TrEMBL record:
Lineage of source species: Bacteria, Pseudomonadati, Planctomycetota, Planctomycetia, Pirellulales
UniProt-listed Enzyme Commission number(s): 2.4.2.19
PANTHER family linked: NICOTINATE-NUCLEOTIDE PYROPHOSPHORYLASE [CARBOXYLATING] (PTHR32179:SF3)
Domain Quinolinate phosphoribosyl transferase C-terminal, first and last residues per copy: 120-304
Molecular function terms, GO-annotated: nicotinate-nucleotide diphosphorylase (carboxylating) activity
Protein name: nicotinate-nucleotide diphosphorylase (carboxylating)
Function noted in UniProt: Involved in the catabolism of quinolinic acid (QA).
Cellular component annotations (GO), alphabetically ordered: cytoplasm
Domain of life of the source: Bacteria
Location of the Quinolinate phosphoribosyl transferase N-terminal domain: 33-118
Keyword match Transferase: yes
Pfam families assigned: QRPTase_C, QRPTase_N
Residue numbers binding substrate: R108, T141, R142, K143, R165, K175, E221, D242, S268, G269, N270, S289, G290, A291
Amino acid sequence: MDYRPVQLDDALENDLRQLVRLSIAEDLDIAVDWTTVAMIAPERRGACQIVPRCSGIAAGIALAPWIVDEFDADLEVEVLIDEGTPLVPGEPIVRLSGSARDLLTSERVLLNILSRLCGVATLTGRYVEAIGEHDARLYDTRKTTPGWRRLEKYAVRCGGGHNHRTGLYDGFLIKDNHLALGRSENDPSSKLTAGEAATRAVAMRGASVNQLVAPPMVEIEVDTLEQFEQVATTGIDIVLLDNFSLDDLRRAVARRDELGVTLDLEASGNVTIDTIGNVAATGVDRISSGALTHQATWLDLGMDWLDGFAS
């Protein structure tokens, strides 16, 4: 089992359109693009290409028509490459033609969104490459830019990564704060143990509460091998091994295999591009890292004008 992947669907389109509307409001407020209106005649036509200035991985390219549509622009959009394709400096990825005014007014929003998503995909691709030949799968987290979660998680997939849960509604993930604030049923004066928490969540999955069906995935974060022993045979799907040493990750993998349970082990905590290969070599099934989104830098994209198409 796994969490639902973010896909090119209605939910993603809705999020994108809301962000584009906000971006349009930021640029135009209740006015117009005064510089373009002053300099460019309304009948002027033109064409341009969005071009990467450096190497990377394409993400968000398929969204360009939705962005332009939200501007209600008199433009034709031609997507030139597939998502997840390596970007070659100087080779165009999107071509636009039509109203020169609309091209100029929509330029920055287009570049901002595509640059951000290509940056996330590019960093994800580097992490995937650093895992090398090991079998561990790379996952993102909820450490995303507010309002951009589906888009950034979509970009992670374009870069070769996998999606962890999209939101709190998408699965059980019991963390140390849940244990600290929860209470044991046997002793209400003591905090919840990892084993009790896991058992409680497993019992609840698939149950109906206020006409809502609980999600099927159950994951728990543990800080020690002792906690791992408490939860390994409770029927949960994933154990998140938080900030484990490499030796303890190996011990957890060996113990899981010794018990013969169907259980994915996920390493997390301070995973970097330099350490992820060693983490993957321990035999864990999954590695999650917030760095894929919160450490990604924008990819340098530019808009080049095509003189032969201007009229």
